[in-house]
Amino acid sequence: NAAPAVLPSLLLCDFGDLKGEVAKLHDAGARVLHLDVMDGHFVPNMTYAMPIVEGLRRHTDMPLDVHLMISDPLKYAKPMVDAGADMLTFHVEAVRNAAETADLIRQMGVNVGVALNPETPLASLRECLADIDMVLVMSVEAGFGGQKFNPIALEKLRTLRSEFPDLLLEIDGGIDATTIGPARAAGCDLFVVGSAIFKKHDYNSAIKALTDEIAA
Ligand code: DX5
Ligand code: ZN
């Protein structure tokens, strides 16, 4: 399985200085960036889309893990791939046929993840699990940074990990130095972090505090 990693979420960063933020995150040890794309429809909040992804692509070689919180992921998947996404994750709640959606995205040449909100049962993933690289287990309702961690995510991670030893598992929402350890213990590989990095001045010590908690 993948080595555990902390993925900074570019939601609470300084968008006036994206290039500087990316450099600081890389210096602090980040090796993958998590990009939160929201459309004001699937979730009430709006963020950014292809032009920002494309701009980031020009300034870093780090893989871009794009979390699509949008109502029509297939409509924007190819533009996102062209903009430089390496992994595209769509929400199972947003699509009619998750297996087909995953398949179509995979044909665009990227890795595919499927996300599910805290209220969404694991059973909703049944028919697509064979077609995906990663499950993104949301530990907050998608839409905003800075929300409180919902432990229902730990239960889902444990179930997925026991049934699918090789599946990549990611968690997103309310991850900090106290919640990251339990998520790791539940079998998670990738830990998306917003507030616990960007509300700190020193990204180095913030990321180190998190990686220390998940070191084997
Ligand atoms: C929530 C986003 C998350 C969020 C995480 O909809 O998908 O990536 O930015 O932020 P924190 O760590 O503050 O919960
Ligand atoms: Zn996210």
Automatic annotation (TrEMBL):
Substrate binds at S9, H67, G143, F144, G145, G146, D172, G173, G174, G194, S195. Signal peptide: none annotated. Binds 1 divalent metal cation per subunit. A divalent metal cation binds at H34, D36, H67, D172. It catalyses: D-ribulose 5-phosphate = D-xylulose 5-phosphate. Its cofactor is Fe(2+); a divalent metal cation; Mn(2+); Co(2+). It is an enzyme of class 5 (isomerase). GO terms for cellular component: cytoplasm. GO terms for biological process: pentose catabolic process; pentose-phosphate shunt. The keyword Coiled coil does not apply. One of its GO terms (molecular function) is metal ion binding. Pathway: Carbohydrate degradation. The active site is at D36 (proton acceptor), D172 (proton donor). Keywords: Carbohydrate metabolism, Isomerase, Metal-binding. Its EC number is 5.1.3.1. Belongs to the ribulose-phosphate 3-epimerase family. Catalyzes the reversible epimerization of D-ribulose 5-phosphate to D-xylulose 5-phosphate. This is Ribulose-phosphate 3-epimerase. The lineage of its organism: Bacteria, Pseudomonadati, Planctomycetota, Planctomycetia, Pirellulales.
